[in-house]
Amino acid sequence: MTGTPSATVNGVAVPVPSDGRRLVHWLREDLGLTGTKHPCGAGHCGGCSVLVDGHPALACTTMAATLGDTEITTIEGLAARGDALLRCFVEKGAVQCGMCTPGMVVAARAFLNATYGARRTTATVREALAGNVCRCTGYTQIVRAVLAAGADDHAENPCEN
């Protein structure tokens, strides 16, 4: 007999549900992590994005039961770490209604991690965020925030760029 599978969610081991719930429902309803949004429910907008083993995943189309032995990071996990990317989103005016913001930040964090030390451009940021839809900002401020956060991977306050 084996134990109940668990995932590490924002640094805490949590048993994974064995029923047919989607990740977004498990995070929001069972774990109280309501920062992960549920805008479209069909995987079209990216607003529900979380990191699973460091890669963006759509929480509205991912079955929670499949996530045993994974590391899941939500927007709350990034905030708890003091991720400067969140501050850059605020300081660069990349936050409007907030529905897409958690997914945008999560996707941007995955992009910045994957391109650590590399030259980033408007085009590469736009490509990395192509699966995330924002109906408020027009993306210019979002791209500026990501570029500022990634301008100097070692800066104490990268948002000043």
UniProtKB/TrEMBL annotation:
Keywords: 2Fe-2S, Iron, Iron-sulfur, Metal-binding, Oxidoreductase. It holds the Pfam family Fer2. It comes from the Bacteria. The keyword Iron applies. This is (2Fe-2S)-binding protein. Residues 1-78 form the 2Fe-2S ferredoxin-type domain. The keyword Chloroplast does not apply.
